[in-house]
Amino acid sequence: MTDLQGQSRDLGPSDDPWAVLRDATRARVALGRAGDGLPTSRELEFRAAHAAARDAVHTALDADLVRTALTGAGVGLDVLEVHSQAPDRTTYLQRPDLGRRLAPDTQLPAGTYDLALVLADGLSPRAVHEHAAGTVAAVLDRLPGWSVAPLVLAQQARVALGDPVGEALGAGIVVVLVGERPGLSSADSLGLYLTHGPRPGRADSERNCISNVRPPHGLGYAQAADTLVALLQASRQLGASGVVLKDEGAALLPGAG
Amino acid sequence: MTVRRTTLGGHTHEFRSLTDVLAKATPARSGDVLAGVAAESQAQRVAAQHVLADVPLATFLTEPVVGYEEDDVTRLILDTHDPAAFAPVAALTVGGFRDWLLARAAERDEAAISSLARGLTPEMVAAVSKVMRNADLIAVARRTRVVTGLRSTLGLPGRLASRLQPNHPTDDAVGVTASILDGLLHGCGDAVIGINPATDSPAQTIALLELVGAVISRYEIPTQSCVLAHVTTTLRALEAGAPVDLVFQSVAGTQAGNRGFGVTLDLLAEARAGALELGRGTVGANVTYFETGQGSALSADAHHGVDGPVDQQTLECRAYGVARHFDPLLVNTVVGFIGPEYLYDGKQVIRAGLEDHFCGKLLGLPMGVDVCYTNHTDVDGDDTDTLTLLLGAAGCSFVIAVPGSDDVMLHYQSLSFTDVLTARSVLDLRPAPEFEAWLAMMDLLDDDGHVRELTPEAPAARALLAAARP
Fold first, then answer.
1. For domain B4-142, which architecture applies?
2. Least CB-packed of B160, B263, B297, B456 within 10 Å?
3. What Rg, from alpha-carbon coordinates, does chain B have?
4. Which residues on neighbouring strands pair with residue A173, listed in sequence order?
5. Does domain B148-441 have CATH number 3.20.20.70?
């Protein structure tokens, strides 16, 4: 018996060869069979993961829950609420263009700020419920001296909704904290998208993204905030964001969405 | 631009161009609504289908939906059109062509249908599909024969092959190997062992090619490998002398769409020539692999034609017009991947999967389907079962399978290895012949040719699993 490198190796009696496969990857290998299908327990495990992901997409953003979490995390900024032009989830999923525009009656107080933070439900409101407050608190802790606009909580929102919001508030940079498309084993992943000089029409190549903020399994709040603050400082210095910023360091990744 | 009109139920419907007729005749899907080209009512959709059914096929040779001068895909389609192959159906309308196809399918006249390919343009095929029901698409595709080969033969009657997709979030060699072995133990991998790399770099691509190549040569598996990197990356790998079986690329149906993918027709030709030169085939010399999917042009804002936006299914067929120029071993639509803004639910995904398969095959492509979905689409395992079994009935060349349906790198769900076993079992389909012989040699088949369920102690399992040990 030989391994991939051609070296001889014996399987001892205690070795479970299936365990060898399972230990090698997070992929769902060696599930066993019931005839030509999956065993019931495996089938139901898969359905549970899919159900969690589906429910994460269709959960409504609970503004009170987010406000309470922000207060609990010691964030003292005012919170404003906006809605995109997508009236409901069904429309939102089919019309990404509407999720990028503000509802016509939206009023936002104009000012002059270094930074605006937008909490957007995106494809996983659950991610905003669970991780937005912790992330915002960690970011604000690292930005003494920056003027930060009131927080904006956005419903049925895509990343690009941050462009009209940031412009209306008069922010130099906007960061959108958005619920990412749920995976089978990650229904609560938060993404952070940074755009310098926000205004409608900004291209995805003009944004930088930090993905998978989801402690304890994904990126932690402190780690995400460290990276974001480094990006914010570089972006302010450069007067731009996106691909041009990516070249500044390995941790600074371009974004899409 | 020719205005076309028809009266249906006392109401006159008017369509401003052939592009408009094609779009409004398309069965409902979210992407055409997003593009603003969909029919505004059911009656308008059927009226457009009436108008389309009366359009002569030859019209598509003189009224391109995307301009000849500004688009190299249109030039490729029209400049390579074969009038001799077109002759048997040259006098027919779109509706007449549907009737002709159904008649030949009922007669099981595979030669008549299959020999049309180079005489048909993507727009003709898209048009006829729009006046066909799902069962029509299945019945005709089943009698359309496209056989290709490299180290296994694909597309033979009574066969269903599979791409084994052992993706891993960090391209970890042991993790990838574990998924490959799990797939092989389920009789999957006869179409290709094809990895989407987590990092698109020449070094990573070469490392993965060598990894899969080592498994294939160690066990002498009659299949091919592919690392689905960008074609420019594969060119670097070829220059470095890596064992490239297949050149992969995603393609779209317009020049602008292909520009969005960072490819040109010249680049594809150069890479194909490089892979051909290696002469790695044993039963054939098809060395390219293409993926497509409805909505890719729209998502790149590359869906514009001479008379405004073109519907996503017509553009998808034009992507097949690109693919067939490079004699591929494999082409598949990634039908549920792109999201609910293009195909919203199970009904739309099933319809699109059957359309793509039929259209690709009629144009002469070895058509497979990635039967798949994302978590924000209204699709589940019941829908993918339905589509898979319908595709099996339609004579689909191959499907894609990942461990337990869960692609842990691309974060979407495709078929599981057991789904392939089920489709083969229910529909009496078998793997590619060379691969089937290999499975038998490895003692992985029972007396009925069915992939046996192995206990860990089985010699075949222990022999294969030894490779997974770090």
1. Orthogonal Bundle (1.10)
2. B456
3. 22
4. A115, A196
5. yes
